[in-house]
Specification:
Layout (H helix, E strand, L loop, with lengths): L2 E10 L2 E12 L7 E4 L4 H16 L8 E7 L11 H11 L10 E3 L2 E2 L5 E2 L4 H11 L4 E5 L3 H5 L6 E4 L2 H8 L30 H13 L3 E5 L5 H5 L11 H14 L13 E2 L7 H5 E2 L4 E2 L1 H4 L4 E4 L7 H6 L1 H6 L1 E5 L4 E5 L3 E6 L18 H9 L3 H4 L4 E5 L4 H5 L7 H19 L12 H7 L4 H14 L3 H17 L7 H8 L9
Parallel strand pairs: 3-4, 5-8, 8-9, 10-17, 10-18, 11-14, 14-17
Antiparallel strand pairs: 1-2, 2-4, 6-7, 12-13, 15-16
The structure holds adenosine-5'-triphosphate and magnesium ion (MG).
Amino acid sequence: MNYAGVKTVTTIGLSVIPVTVEIDVDRKAVIYDIDIVGLGDTVVKESKKRVKSALKNSGFGVPQGRITVNLAPSDVKKEGSYLDLPIAVGMLQAAEVVSKDLDRFVFFGELGLDGTLRKVRGVLPILLSLSKQDNGAGVILPIDNAREARVVKGLTVYAVSDLKDLVSFLNGYSKKSPVEFAQPELRQEVSADISDVKGHDFAKRAAEIATAGLHNISFRGSPGCGKTMLARRIPGILPRMTMEEALETTMIYSVAGLLGDSGLVRERPFRSPHHTASTTAIIGGGTEARPGEISLANNGVLFLDEFPEFRKDVIEALRQPIEDGAVTIARAKLTVKYPSKFMLVVAQNPCPCGWYGDNVQECGCTWRDVRRYNRKISGPMEDRIDIFVDMPRLEFKEYASKYSAESSLDVRKRVESARTMQLERLQSHGLRSNSQMSHKLVQKIAPLDSTGQKLLENAIDKMKLTGRSIDKVLKVARTIADLDGEEKVLPRHLAEALQYRKKTVDA
Ligand SMILES: Nc1ncnc2c1ncn2[C@@H]1O[C@H](COP(=O)(O)OP(=O)(O)OP(=O)(O)O)[C@@H](O)[C@H]1O
Ligand SMILES: [Mg+2]
């Protein structure tokens, strides 16, 4: 046989494109060689060496002649090592080692020189996309990717260990059971309980509201008052992910090559990159357009500790993904889009030395330092934060108090019921939480009675609220009403929401 065609796929970010690997063997050629055409990257080009060795070391040999491998469609870039397997299978078919109809399968996997199949990244988006196509084709992939296959429903997947195993299966010499569907249960562990945080009832309440309505929140306070400690306890009060959310987040981890053994990201992510991190690390990009921290935090929390210490370009680059819930990474010839729906939690000191406004320790900064420090967060960036909390120093009597605070699980119960209320109200608008409401929706969903109107009017005047901040106050008030189990936003909800506006630091 001089021609073979094998089905596989290629990916651009989370999009999956079908690819056919065509093999043509010119048996009359004088020079025996392999040419790979069809916009493959360097890794694909190197494939020929791995495939050649893998075939030889598995005892099959390469078809004799000049071989042309075409990756169709030829105008789409292909990258990564998972084309090794379909190329090798094409050669086996051209060499008549496997003769059965291969059209029933889609192949992908990397080959070792000894013919073993190696795990590849980005398998979950591929499997989810194939499972939706419903053309009855099965999938053959490396055994180490089987765990990812287990979480996908309605797709027949066979996991193979090496080329010999594959040939024996394709020729019907050995039988194989498809990978069994077994979605692991989702969970949301409380690794650190919110009751460990002494005092700070106001900040804890703010954290609860933020979590309930998915509002972005900022904690500001002097060194050692417990900002980091509280922020790290937010995952414990978050509700469990839905399966839809878990699969969405898992796809990103799969593409980033960060998926652990479970095959599924089961808990909401909590990402806390260091303030020296680059824009690429936070936003995503690089030669392979990998997802950044904002996408790895999708459906979870992005915690930026010591926020003003982050590079200015990083802080500014966050604005668009926060607004859109997705990030577009442009590369030479294509753009890749990843989701980035996260709850932003930031923590900072009030000034460079940290003690501005403290009632014991004196601040050693000049007023210029204090202003410059706080101005590192631009107005538009601040506009994306709904709740601001100033945390005072912890008093000794609070620290020594034996009063036992509410546990994370107790708080989570309220958060969950508030989220259910929001979902029922907002689902038909394609939204999940109050923070995502548009201006129009806020007007419709959070109307105020006459006392509330008056209170708001006064606040606009006294607190100099802008149009955007009025909306934010109303969204937060809506969440407070949800936590209260109230259908209407009452004046007390609005009054509480107004307390979470930013207090300016003016030295
Ligand atoms: N409210 C608190 N309740 C119990 N322990 C606390 C509290 N605040 C601080 N601590 C203790 O102090 C340690 C430091 O707190 P944390 O790291 O949260 O401070 P911070 O506000 O983030 O300070 P910095 O501005 O220096 O980052 C905590 O690990 C904890 O042991
Ligand atoms: Mg800290």
